[in-house]
Design a protein that fits this description.
Elements (H helix, E strand, L loop, with lengths): L1 E7 L9 E7 L4 E10 L4 H11 L9 H25 L7 E2 L1 E7 L2 E7 L3 E6 L2 E4 L6 H7 L5 H5 L19 E6 L5 E5 L1 H4 L4 H8 L5 H14 L6 E7 L1
Antiparallel strand pairs: 1-11, 2-3, 3-4, 3-5, 5-6, 6-9, 7-8, 7-10, 10-11
Helix pairs in contact: 1-2
Amino acid sequence: MQIESFTDVGLHRKNNEDRFLVNILDDQNALLVIADGMGGHAAGEVAAELAVSSFEGFSFVGAENILAELVDRIKKAGKAVRERERADPACSGMGTTLSALLIAGQWAYWAHLGDTRIYRYRQGALLRITEDHTLAGMLLKKGEITGEEARVHPYGSVLTRCVGCDEHQPDSGVFDLTEGDQVLLSTDGLHDLIPESRIAELISADVTLKEKLAALLAACLEAGGRDNITGIIASI
């Protein structure tokens, strides 16, 4: 297993409110976490940092406990964000998205709130694992708009669930992995700027993981780079 990651402030933002964590536990197990904060001044950065920090010290404790542990960590992150918000007026209204993935051999366990995403790429097909908790995502789920329409929808960034925004239940699940698969975690500054067909094209290239991420970043900047851009890619 190989893992690479990057984050970039983009072309229009002064601060980078994205945060991520890559924790390689051993040659077959790794924890990947990505967050995109929101809030005035530096509050978004605070929320994202608190969320990612909630996964520090995560240990592989057995398949029957993984999903429950991932969900519990996200709930604890929400509690930490709300407590900081109450304690610091400058953090009023802050929150964050959060997607966490534990690669455990041939299985991947995940938990998620918001519109950061987890994808699996296999033999030419890019599968989105997570659902966007946005107004556009809600319309997509109802079948009222297409995936491409959701990507450019004016309410595409309006979150319906996030970490720190009340006590929302995270989505969670598990999917299989096989040799040759790739897993991508991204913030909306990446997947909202370029269509999934382009993402699939770039990560299918016969180049290194670093070069794939560099190509994704270049494509996002070429498309306007209007938000912070963060990605983590793992090759199985």
